[in-house]
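Dear colleagues,

For the upcoming journal club I promised to circulate an example of a predicted protein-ligand complex. I picked one with uracil because it came up in last month's discussion. The inputs are reproduced below in full, followed by the predicted structure.
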Amino acid sequence: MESYEEWLGAYAALAWQVELGVEDAVLDAPINRYDIAEPAPIAKSTKPNVQTPVKELDPTDYAKAAVKDIQDINALQNALNGFEHCDLRNGARNTVFADGIPSSRVMIIGEAPGRDEDQQGKPFVGRAGQLLDKMFAAIGLSRASDLSAKGIYITNVIPWRPPQNREPTPQEIAMMVPFLQRHIELVAPEFIVVMGNTPMSALLGMRGITKHRGTWGMFDGKPVLPMVHPAYLLRNPIAKRDAWADLLSLKKRMEA
Ligand code: URA
């Protein structure tokens, strides 16, 4: 290695791969590439070379097709596990689906898994998730409860960890919305809480969470409460006061 900078670059690349779950630099068995058959030559067409326009299918259409006939949550999870049109899955260790009982009155929707969620295959298990648990415990709700009245059901818009935890793109969000919409239909919660801009844009079509938090909206006939993401609260503890007001607003609606 020529310089310290080069060494640092190589070290960072290696650390990133280890974080993604790469454990071996080579395959277990060697591949003799001389044994691999040459691909057959492509037959020359006798037809005149007329360019037929190929209609590119939008990945969102694949997602809509994948969820069309799904009738239960297990089938939805299987469809998501088998969905290959989102590149994010290639860098993820697990497809993170949901946690909590599906009969809960409240469904919480986050953005995407982070490192801990990717490793454990469950949503909101890292620091932000621990804060989320404390916040909802303060109004008597928990993902560990098996009572519909006291449970929360938690999922994310994106089930795969984006590289370096970057924000999902509008295309990635649009691609996963058909899955999310079906998920909501199957769970049929009484109340939805969207945590941060990504789920708010997916369900309510707007951004600006610090402005819109606390203002109830509607998605598919269900009341939706936008709240700031718990990761934001970890960085800006001053915003916890507003988050508490939002939790009380949810509690009040649940008791009405
Ligand atoms: N942030 C999210 O939005 N979801 C998770 O599951 C974890 C962190």
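Two points we might discuss: Residues 110-114, 117, 123-124, 126, 128-129, 156 surround uracil (CB under 6 Å). The CA atoms of residues 49 and 144 lie 63 Å apart.

See you all on Thursday,
B. R.
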